[in-house]
Recover the amino acids of this structure.
């Protein structure tokens, strides 16, 4: 079984971004970029499935400008077998990404597609569900555990009330949550080896997909600042202030 | 495509959840901007009690009920067929769902089946086609205009007040539930049971982080919570370390909360945690590191060892 993993290049999780002065977007010049943390978890899960003998090949795909090849190389160093970049100027909207991934699914026929549950920049939490719909596959979103049993997939999902377990007929789509696994680091020899692994590129036109946007971002603004607070000297002062000053107790 | 608003209700077959009421408020605001009737869909099995609650909502123009065995657990593969059926046969300009794990699971699937984009997690309705949504862990707000005839939107429940629950008298109409797709099935669930209020609707929340050191110390927080009717939350570090269960995680990738009072105990205040609680009215931080970033957003900061401060706080609250 082939496993397809979709990964996104995003601003590093430790960076606090700033909005550009002209309110057009956030400032991304000279900012540290990384694989979206949920996508790292997706890669790790795919590699573990391969190590357990469930997967025969792990293919990673990223959609974006050539800079995303850096993240694809990292994925290869982590253990993916092949990489595919689909060239796009900006990051297209989730629907367009899902359509591109659907075209890759048609080409590659994976038994399982793993995505992050959300990217930490766009925070959309859409792409996996959209891909599942387009590919007519069941979806195991927000997964904290994945087990393969024959041709079905047992997925434990993190839901608002706790945990839910579903059984999906493969091929299926899984989106990762934080507790699914702890991603490994790439070793130096593997980083060297990754340079020789195949990295292919295609374009949306090659795949016959229209990625024109359906939405316009009119403006990006900073959130309201919280006014600076005060330090209190003791628990009793805290309780007094919450009761009398803030009126919340 | 017409202009009516289809809202997917959040419920567990026995109770209509508060998230539905907040989502309906966004629908009310869209109606004020020229959208059509507000229709509430209850997809489930044996959800009579939910239907009764829904029928009493004064802001709802129509209650639609899809009742079938394959909808019992609201699996998105099944519910999306019901919703697409309605959208294709009806006069809708909008599909709204709360940005709960249910809504997030369902709405994008429907959007893709309808070949439209989705606007996720809106915090404001600007006009009939324009919304505000936080991006980058809430460090920026995007004003997004949707050009699709059908607008699929998920609603951040903490950003909208709840609509009134009583005073209406709408009749419920039953709608078709297409045959089961059978590609997915429900196996089981482990739901957290607690006497305390739900995190996303609690008026007061007290959350613990890695500083709590172990799940065995969470009773210190719970004792305080019970004195003031608070819900108990946690940071990702506390969940990852196994102190408490995943449903307690507050943050960018957990639950978004905005109570009147949020008390962060032994939490450093990482970007991702702040994203989930910085819209709280009053924030208190208890941390023994006076440099902890949580103090930058706290209205009241107490630099103290939590193992001393918590028992004292419990006592002070009488
Ligand atoms: C005109 C325009 C303006 C934009 N302006 C902004 C802006 O101001 N701010 C902003 O944040 N974004 C902006 N975007 C970017 C865009 O909205 C998102 O980055 C994009 O929609 C993907 O959403 P997401 O990553 O949040 O999806 P999610 O659904 O959250 O992603 C979930 C998962 O999908 C997969 N995935 C997502 N994207 C890719 C990809 N490119 N390649 C491979 N896999 C992927 C990954 O597995 C990821 O974990 C703009 C886009 C357009 C077209
Ligand atoms: C993709 C991604 C998603 C994430 N999503 C979330 C999310 O949704 N929610 C979330 O919370 N985090 C999230 N995180 C994690 C986040 O970056 C931080 O790692 C996390 O919030 C830290 O938790 P913490 O504050 O409990 O732990 P720490 O940062 O370790 O802080 C512990 C604090 O406790 C204090 N302390 C220790 N002992 C005591 C004592 N005896 N008395 C008083 N204070 C004490 C310390 O001074 C310190 O400030 C995410 C990270 C990533 C990469």
């Amino acid at each position: 079984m082939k496993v397809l993993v979709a990964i996104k290049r995003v601003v590093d999780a430790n960076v606090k971004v700033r909005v550009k002065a002209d309110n057009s977007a956030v400032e991304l010049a000279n900012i540290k970029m990384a694989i979206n943390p949920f996508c790292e978890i997706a890669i790790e899960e795919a590699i573990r499935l391969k190590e357990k003998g469930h997967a025969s090949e792990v293919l990673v795909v990223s959609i974006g400008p050539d800079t995303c090849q850096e993240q694809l190389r990292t994925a290869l160093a982590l253990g993916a077998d092949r990489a595919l970049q689909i060239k796009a100027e900006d990051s297209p909207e989730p629907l367009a990404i899902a359509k591109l991934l659907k075209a890759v699914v048609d080409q590659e026929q994976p038994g399982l597609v793993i995505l992050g549950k959300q990217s930490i920049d766009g925070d959309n939490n859409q792409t996996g569900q959209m891909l599942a719909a387009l590919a007519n596959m069941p979806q195991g979103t927000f997964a904290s555990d994945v087990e393969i049993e024959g041709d079905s997939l047992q997925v434990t999902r993190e839901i608002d009330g706790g945990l839910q377990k579903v059984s999906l007929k493969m091929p299926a789509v899984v989106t990762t949550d934080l507790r699914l696994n702890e991603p490994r680091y790439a070793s130096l020899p593997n980083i060297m080896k990754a340079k020789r692994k195949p990295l292919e590129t295609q374009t949306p036109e090659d795949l016959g997909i229209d990625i024109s946007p359906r939405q316009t971002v009119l403006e990006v603004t900073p959130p309201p600042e919280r006014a600076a607070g005060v330090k209190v000297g003791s628990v009793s002062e805290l309780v007094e202030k919450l009761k009398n000053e803030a009126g919340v107790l | 495509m017409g202009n009516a608003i289809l809202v997917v209700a959040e419920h567990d077959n026995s109770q209509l959840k508060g998230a539905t009421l907040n989502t309906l408020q966004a629908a009310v605001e869209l109606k004020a901007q020229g959208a059509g009737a507000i229709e509430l869909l209850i997809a489930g099995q044996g959800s009579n009690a939910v239907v009764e609650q829904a029928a009493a909502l004064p802001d709802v123009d129509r209650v639609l009920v899809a009742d079938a065995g394959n909808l019992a657990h609201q699996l998105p593969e099944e519910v999306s067929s019901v919703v697409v059926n309605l959208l294709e046969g009806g006069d809708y300009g909008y599909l709204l769902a709360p940005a709960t794990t249910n809504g997030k699971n369902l709405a994008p699937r429907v959007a893709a089946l309808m070949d439209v984009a989705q606007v996720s997690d809106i915090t404001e309705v600007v006009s009939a086609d324009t919304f505000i949504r936080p991006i980058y862990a809430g460090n920026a707000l995007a004003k997004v205009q949707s050009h699709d005839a059908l607008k699929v939107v998920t609603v951040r429940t903490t950003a909208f007040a709840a609509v009134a629950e009583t005073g209406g008298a709408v009749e419920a109409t039953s709608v078709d539930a297409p045959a089961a797709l059978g590609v997915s099935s429900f196996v089981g669930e482990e739901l957290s049971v607690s006497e305390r209020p739900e995190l996303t609707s609690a008026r007061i929340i007290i959350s613990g982080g890695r500083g709590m050191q172990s799940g065995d110390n969470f009773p210190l927080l719970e004792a305080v919570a019970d004195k003031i009717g608070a819900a108990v939350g946690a940071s990702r570090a506390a969940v990852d370390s196994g102190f408490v269960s995943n449903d307690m995680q507050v943050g960018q990738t957990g639950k978004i909360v905005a109570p009147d009072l949020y008390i962060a105990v032994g939490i450093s205040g990482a970007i991702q945690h702040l994203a989930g609680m910085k819209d709280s009215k009053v924030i208190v931080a208890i941390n023994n590191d006076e440099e902890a970033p949580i103090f930058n957003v706290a209205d009241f900061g107490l630099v103290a060892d939590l193992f001393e401060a918590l028992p004292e706080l419990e006592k002070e609250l009488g």
Notes: The pocket of flavin-adenine dinucleotide (ligand 1) is lined by residues A 6-8, 25, 36, 38-39, 42, 61-64, 90-94, 97, 115-116, 118-119, 121-128, 213, 217, 220; B 135, 142 (CB under 6 Å).
